[in-house]
């Protein structure tokens, strides 16, 4: 039904498609749905998890992770940054194992039958994480793929892997034309999810979280218009791999204006929740001891104290490549009020696993200093896959409607004669897990959002 006429109703629900009526249950889940060029009945459990689609059935574990799809069984690591599929027990009796590399993600799969290897495939991705090719053990390409921006309903029918569209981030392409994106299923045929965003609801979709965001939120208003949309209907520039927890740790005693600092931290949290799909927690810090304690007890936990997987952590405070000496040279009043992100604090931080750590602190990624904070973060924190930090002075400003967005940019360092700064530097890991600095030197004199920074680390 490609190009079929469609109609939408209340809540931007798709009501007509190809001359047929799309139906929903009381929870907003699609129950009579376009699938593979026809229509199929969908059913859900009490947690709004899809249990059947046409003739296909699904089961899940207590954490909501998919366990079976018809005769295929999935074994998943739920505690990695994005949950990772480790192996599949296939209907034909074979077993496929998936291999991941620190800082890169999925790199290959190998299938065994009766204990003997029968097929090896290595993945090749584009800048958005779509699989564009598979190669064999000799490095010869065996399949190539082209991906329309909203996905392709036919792509998963006759290929050798389930990791295609956004495959690097663990999105699984099912043979029936649906994409399994952990929390929900996405239909490339319709260009939308089959049920509503599980985070946004009537209590927060106009004002954001009431306890944190007391003022009207233009981003939440936009999102409330379509709770079925994928990546805010902009899949060229955005992805929506899951929705893990993220954290912004900000200096609550900023000398310049502590209210503005807190306000900007809230705006960045809203952007991450809306554009990146991660639940973002705002954590004030006042000293090195406070950072160390809250890194241990707040980062990696939800508001109820339950352990969660971490997508990204942002520190928003003063900084410098040798910032302890720099602060010591300033007045007592100045250094006592502000928190500065010290190199000495890094060694005392508890080990945490996360995809991205972002330092919005001046000169913490300064490349003329080998032992800077960015390098020490990825060197000492073995679970952090990517670190982004400013090579130069870091600034933030508010822009847009009601000045409700924060834009980040870098400028010339005030603490050195060399002016060869080059925006934000990305520290990541090689295939053996060793820290390296990449050629990436982006966003020099550019106004970008916190989401842009995080996505740049994942490309």
Low-confidence stretches: 204-219, 323-337
Between the first and last Cα atoms, what is the distance in angstroms? Answer: 33 Å
Number of helices: 8
User: How can the largest sheet be summarized?
Assistant: 13 strands, antiparallel
Total strands? 29
Strand order within the widest beta sheet: 4-5-6-7-8-9-10-11-12-13-14-15-16
Strand proportion, as a percent range, falls in 25-35%
Average predicted confidence as pLDDT: 78
Describe the global form.
globular
The class by helix and strand makeup works out as alpha+beta
Helix content: 10-25%
| Rg from Cα | 23 Å
Counting structural domains, the number is 2
What does this structure look like?
The protein has eight helices and 29 strands. The chain is an alpha+beta fold and 459 residues long. The chain has two domains: 6-193; 243-458. The strands form five sheets. It has a 13-stranded antiparallel sheet with strand order 4-5-6-7-8-9-10-11-12-13-14-15-16, with no helix packed on it. A seven-stranded mixed sheet has the order 22-21-23-24-25-28-29, with helices on both faces. 40% of the residues are buried.
């Amino acid at each position: 039904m490609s190009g079929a006429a469609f109609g939408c109703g209340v809540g931007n629900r798709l009501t007509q498609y190809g001359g047929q009526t799309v139906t929903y249950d009381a929870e907003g889940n699609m129950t009579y749905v376009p699938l593979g060029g026809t229509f199929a009945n969908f059913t859900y459990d009490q947690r709004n998890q899809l249990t059947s689609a046409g003739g296909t059935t699904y089961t899940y574990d207590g954490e909501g992770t998919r366990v079976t799809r018809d005769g295929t069984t999935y074994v998943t690591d739920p505690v990695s940054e994005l949950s990772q599929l480790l192996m599949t027990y296939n209907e034909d009796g074979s077993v496929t194992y998936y291999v991941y590399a620190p800082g890169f993600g999925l790199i290959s799969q190998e299938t065994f039958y009766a204990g003997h290897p029968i097929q090896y495939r290595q993945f090749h991705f584009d800048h958005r994480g779509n699989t564009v090719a598979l190669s064999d053990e000799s490095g010869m390409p065996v399949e190539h793929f082209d991906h329309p921006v909203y996905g392709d309903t036919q792509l998963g029918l006759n290929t050798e892997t389930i990791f295609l569209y956004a495959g690097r981030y663990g999105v699984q392409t099912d043979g029936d034309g649906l994409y399994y994106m952990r929390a929900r299923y996405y239909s490339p045929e319709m260009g939308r999810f089959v049920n509503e965003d599980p985070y946004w609801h009537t209590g927060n979709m106009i004002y954001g979280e009431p306890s944190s965001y007391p003022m009207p939120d233009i981003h939440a208003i936009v999102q409330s218009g379509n709770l079925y949309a994928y990546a805010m209907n902009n899949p060229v520039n955005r992805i929506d791999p899951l929705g893990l927890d993220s954290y912004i740790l900000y200096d609550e005693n900023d000398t310049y204006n502590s209210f503005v600092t807190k306000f900007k931290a809230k705006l960045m949290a809203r952007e991450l929740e809306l554009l990146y799909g991660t639940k973002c927690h705002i954590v004030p810090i006042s000293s090195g001891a406070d950072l160390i304690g809250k890194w241990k007890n707040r980062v990696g936990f939800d508001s109820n104290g339950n352990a969660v997987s971490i997508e990204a952590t942002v520190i928003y405070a003063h900084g410098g490549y040798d910032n302890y000496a720099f602060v010591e040279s300033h007045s007592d009043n100045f250094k006592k009020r502000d928190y500065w992100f010290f190199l000495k604090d890094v060694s005392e931080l508890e080990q945490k696993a996360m995809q991205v750590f972002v330092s919005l602190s001046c000169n913490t990624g300064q490349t003329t200093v080998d032992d800077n904070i960015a390098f020490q973060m990825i060197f000492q924190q073995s679970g952090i896959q990517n670190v982004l930090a400013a090579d130069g002075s870091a600034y933030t400003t508010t822009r847009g409607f009601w000045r409700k967005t924060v834009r980040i940019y870098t400028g010339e360092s005030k603490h050195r004669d060399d002016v060869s700064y080059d925006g934000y530097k990305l520290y990541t890991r090689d295939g053996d897990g060793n820290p390296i600095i990449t050629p990436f030197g982006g966003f020099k004199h550019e106004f970008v959002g916190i989401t842009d920074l995080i996505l740049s680390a994942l490309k």
